[in-house]
Structure formats: C-alpha cells, structure tokens
Specification:
Elements: E1 5-12, E2 15-21, H1 32-39, E3 49-56, E4 59-66, E5 71-72, H2 76-88, E6 97-101, E7 104-111, E8 116-121, E9 124-125, E10 128-129, E11 139-147, E12 149-156, H3 164-172, E13 183-189, E14 198-204, E15 209-211, H4 215-227, E16 235-238, E17 244-251, E18 255-264, E19 266-273
Parallel strand pairs: 2-3, 4-6, 12-13, 14-16
Antiparallel strand pairs: 1-2, 1-19, 3-4, 4-5, 6-7, 7-8, 8-18, 9-18, 10-11, 11-12, 13-14, 14-15, 16-17, 17-18
C-alpha cells in the first residue's frame, strides 16, 4: 500500500466523490472498510462514493463504490465526473471516450470549456407501472425502471414536503424490490419562472439517505414523465443541489433509445491521504 495517496474530489451537481488514479492505486488496496472511512464526512474526506479510474482497452475503466463500501454497477454523476477527470489525467481526450462500467460500455464526452459532460446510455425498456406498492397521500403515480441500476420513480403533488429520509427508506426496502432494493426518486413540478419545470429528490441506496443529485435517477424520471405523457424529450430536470440536468432521446411504445444525459462533472480539489 502506498504511504501517501493522491485523490481528486469531484462533484456532479452536489453528488460528490473521491476519485483515485488506478494506475497507482490498485483496486485490491481499497476494501470496503477503507472506502467507508474515506467517505465519512466527519473523520474522512467525505463523499457519496469512491471511484477508481484506469485506462482500459482504448477507453477508461470506472469502478464505483457507494459510501457504505458496496460496489455498484453504475452511477451517472460519477460517469460524468469520470469523463472530465479522465481528460485531466491524460487517460482520454475531451472530445469523446469509451467508459467501461460494470453495467457495460458507455460513450461519453466533455461539453464546452467548463465542467459539463454528457454520456450516452443503453436503450431502456419503457417503465413498468406498479400496483403492488401502496401510495401515500400526495403520491400520484409510481414506475419502476432500470438505468444501469434499479430505480423507483414517484410522482408527487408537493416535492418540498416529502420526507425523503423516512419515505425513501421504506420504499427502498419494500418487499416488492427484494432482495437488492431500489433508488427512490420523487419528482414534482417547480414554481413558474424556475430554470426547469420539473425537479426531483432522491433517496440513494448504498448511501442510505438523501443525496443532492442522481444522474441515472434523472434519466429514470425523464422516461417516466414521458411515458405518462407529462412531458417529452428533451427535458430539463433540476436536482436538489440546484443544478439542472438535461435528458434527450427518442422512444416508441416499448423502449427509449439514443438517450443522452448532460450534467456537471467538476473538479473541486486535489488532496493527499496519509499512509496508514
């Protein structure tokens, strides 16, 4: 194990990550307990997850861990951040790259001179309506959709009043989604004059609490709203962190295709972890 570790703190619309250069940091050096320590917001760096980036077959490999140390197939915001940081580290060019994830290979690219990035997601089956899960007051519709990882989308009357911690936890662990559970995304209308007519809040499994943004959850929300004929793609959706994502694509009765998610992938700072 290295005596000191260089890390990169990244944010994707408030969803934050500790990034490591896999060329110098072997995956084997990062067991679950070490990941939990680094993600701790009191005694560690503080993050929603840890990401290792490594050159792989002409592209870049992204290995993603939740804050609890569990490995996840995909994280949209981490993928956006990976796209920008891979260019900074010289692993890929800004114009486009192949990002290898546990859920498959994604096409990604940097957008403009700032810290925006976008990624192309695999085709997604149309969301499934749910009848096995009872709705609380103010919850209008529910849909289940997989965007790399499983998501539940809940359309609500008043997004600001949702108790995301309690209701999100209950839905995340509902028997209908056993054994792995789901990420829970609440979506509602914003006041007129906001940057986006729609906004969302997310309870994220692995973090086990509300996070400020969820990239794959944003796509799940977008395709659910389109399936319910409440909007059409492209659509802009505001995160709890304040940033606005955009989701574009096409659809038919069975699936959504050519899906692109655009959002933030910004380097916050670079730091050094002391050796153990």
């Amino acid at each position: 194990m290295n005596t000191e570790v260089t890390f990169y703190k990244m944010t994707g619309s408030g969803n934050d990550f500790v990034f490591l250069d896999g060329r110098t940091e072997p995956l084997a050096d990062w067991p679950a307990e070490r990941i939990r320590q680094v993600c701790d917001r009191r005694s560690g760096v503080g993050a929603d997850g840890v990401v290792l980036l490594t050159p792989d077959k002409g592209g870049v490999r992204m290995v993603y861990f939740n804050a609890d140390g569990s490995r996840a197939d995909l994280c949209g915001n981490a993928a956006l951040c990976s796209t920008r940081l891979a260019a900074v580290l010289g692993m890929a060019g800004e114009g486009g790259m192949q990002l290898h994830t546990d859920s498959g290979i994604l096409e990604t690219r940097s957008v403009g001179p700032g810290w925006a990035a976008e990624l192309r997601l695999p085709d997604i089956d149309a969301p499934e309506g749910l009848t096995a899960v009872a709705r609380d007051a103010g919850e209008r519709r529910m849909a289940r959709v997989t965007v790399g990882v499983p998501h539940l989308v809940v359309l609500v009357d008043d997004l600001a009043s949702v108790n995301v911690s309690d209701r999100g936890r209950a839905l995340r662990r509902h028997a209908a989604f056993a054994p792995d559970g789901v990420n829970v995304n609440f979506v509602g209308k914003q006041a007129e004059g906001q940057d986006s007519p729609w906004a969302m809040r997310t309870y994220e499994r692995g973090v086990e609490g509300e996070t400020l943004a969820c990239g794959t959850g944003t796509v799940a929300v977008a395709v659910s709203l389109a399936t319910w004929s409440l909007t059409s793609l492209p659509v802009r959706i505001a995160s709890q962190g304040g940033n606005v994502f955009s989701v574009s694509g096409s659809s038919d009765d069975a699936a959504f295709r050519d899906l692109w998610l655009c959002g933030e992938g910004r380097l916050v700072f670079r730091g050094i972890l002391p050796g153990s």
